[in-house]
Request: fold
Amino acid sequence: MLQKSEEKYNKFSQELAHAHPRLVSGILDYSSWSDSDNLHDMWAGLLASSCTPDGKDESNLIFVNILSQLTSLQAKIVKHC
Reply:
């Protein structure tokens, strides 16, 4: 998941940035409980999009809570749409 996140981040940005530790902790915790590739892709995208130059933005915390409630089947449906 971390490799996917790094690839996604590097694809869209060349700036040095990082995510808020609270977001990183939640994303790593919840993503480690899943073995679904679809969910790992979503977690990786959330981590990549949470990176900011100062690393103080916690605005994506709500998405950590929402994504943590998705099942692998629901993630497939969301990704398909």
Notes: The CA atoms of residues 17 and 53 lie 4 Å apart.
